[in-house]
From TrEMBL:
UniProt-recorded name of the protein: Flavoprotein
Annotated PANTHER family: ANAEROBIC NITRIC OXIDE REDUCTASE FLAVORUBREDOXIN
Source organism per UniProt: Clostridium aceticum
InterPro entries recorded: Flavodoxin/NO_synth (IPR008254), Flavodoxin_CS (IPR001226), Flavoprotein-like_sf (IPR029039), Metallo-B-lactamas (IPR001279), ODP_dom (IPR045761), RibonucZ/Hydroxyglut_hydro (IPR036866), Rubredoxin-O_OxRdtase (IPR016440)
Gene3D superfamilies noted in UniProt: 3.40.50.360, Ribonuclease Z/Hydroxyacylglutathione hydrolase-like
Pfam family, one: Flavodoxin_1
Record-level Gene Ontology MF annotations: electron transfer activity; FMN binding; metal ion binding; oxidoreductase activity, acting on NAD(P)H
Family membership noted in the UniProt record: In the N-terminal section; belongs to the zinc metallo-hydrolase group 3 family.
Length: 403
């Protein structure tokens, strides 16, 4: 018997889990897998909303057929063309040759570029509607959340927002599909990692999309994204997170990231962390950039206001694993953080000076003077590290008192 779930009246979850793929977009670790969520509305007219990655098309098609039997599919709504969701469009077309593909103008440019020209297009614009019988769909264009063609589909009568990648995250759906069936602590971390690495660069466009939904005054009872849990009990929770993350709002805490060959730069990281703790900071995360994938580091940098970066010198430059960290931060255009810098030089410098150049470009508020020890930290450098910790803790605690 097929494992299908009814989201609400005649709206079915027909998504699949992927536990095999190691890297999402061939970049981001999928330690806990990922789900590709797709939905089926079984009404007078049958509509599929988004599909799945091509490696999963059989499981997806089996679910669709399991629900509608001999009926045909009338519409395939394409909210997003990234191949983790468009990978089974051809399979749907082959199985249901009369299906009408529904998307916006850009959708079909992407479709033809990826899969070649098809026929039966229905091009919608912002605010257009489509009647299925007891269900009525309304479309909202939400460009750059996080591709140019991205849109959301709202089912008016049951108040379900099919939101594409927005509000979704990594992690397979292991039995539980809905927010009230799963451990939200785990999914919130994986949603923030998805947001900060995949969508976060487009925070201004996320704000624009949220504003559009607010101005449309639509009542959202259920959020059905293309990854992660379906929010039916507390959809405002994930909307609030998205609002905060896209405004670069933070929690009190410090992320210390370092690159260290033989442990001397690491000593400075541990020392700064201890001093922060003595000052009363409780959320402190230390990451060895060579050990932890940058996606996890960025996710915590998205969360906390304080960032302290350290590097040894490597071939007259920054330690290579730290290059990935500063590149990702700059690429994300993240704002509103405090920044401390430390590290070591040996037969050459290059680590701390490169971090200082990064500080000039990123324009975060610099905390204290940068500290650079010769090969290993001595009393004078530890003293400077303590000053960074003191000043950073003071600023964070002052903001706590304001709140
Ligand atoms: Fe889940 Fe942008 O694809």
């Amino acid at each position: 018997m097929l494992n299908t779930v009814e989201v609400t009246k005649n709206i079915h979850y027909v998504g699949v889990n992927d536990r095999e793929t190691h890297l999402f977009e061939n970049l981001w670790p999928l330690d806990k897998g990922v789900s590709y969520n797709a939905y089926l509305i079984n009404d007078d007219k049958v509509a599929i909303i988004d599909t799945v990655k091509n490696t999963k098309m059989d499981a997806f098609m089996d679910k669709v057929e399991g629900i509608i039997g001999d009926k045909s599919v009338d519409y395939l709504i394409i909210n997003h063309m990234e191949p983790d969701h468009s990978g089974a469009i051809k399979a749907v077309r082959e199985r249901y040759p009369k299906v009408m593909l529904v998307g916006n103008k850009k959708t079909f440019e992407f479709l033809e570029n990826f899969y070649g020209k098809m026929d039966n297009y229905y091009i919608i614009d912002d605010g257009d509607t489509l009647d299925l019988g007891e269900h009525q769909l309304k479309f909202y264009l939400t460009p750059m959340v996080h591709w140019p063609e991205t849109m959301m589909t709202y089912e008016v009568n049951n108040k379900v927002l099919f939101s594409a990648d927005a509000f979704g995250g990594f992690g397979t759906l292991d039995g539980g599909i809905f927010d009230d069936e799963v451990n939200l602590e785990f999914y919130t971390d994986e949603i923030r990692r998805y947001y900060s690495n995949i969508v976060g660069k487009y925070g201004a466009m996320v704000q624009k999309a949220l504003k559009k939904l607010t101005e449309a005054a639509i009542d959202i009872k259920i959020i059905a994204p293309t990854h992660g849990p379906v929010w039916r009990t507390n959809p405002s929770c994930i909307i609030d997170y998205y609002d905060r993350w896209s405004k670069a709002q933070t929690q009190e805490g410090v992320v210390i990231v370092y690159g260290s060959m033989y442990g001397n730069t690491q000593k400075m990281a541990d020392f700064i962390a201890r001093k922060l703790s003595e000052k009363g900071i409780k959320n402190i995360r230390i990451y060895d950039a060579s050990k932890t994938h940058v996606s996890y580091i960025i996710s915590d940098i998205w969360r906390f206001k304080g960032v302290v970066l350290g590097s040894c010198a490597y071939n007259t430059g920054l330690f290579p694993s730290m290059e990935a960290v500063i590149h990702k931060i700059e690429n994300s255009q993240l704002k509103n953080r405090y920044l401390g810098i430390f590290g070591t030089a040996s037969w050459s410098g290059g680590g701390v000076s490169t971090l200082n150049q990064f500080a000039d470009r990123i324009k975060w508020e610099k905390i204290g003077e940068s500290v650079e020890a010769k090969s290993s930290p001595k009393a004078a450098e530890f003293e400077m590290c303590e000053k960074i910790a003191d000043e950073l803790a003071e600023k964070l605690i002052a903001e706590r008192e304001v709140l």
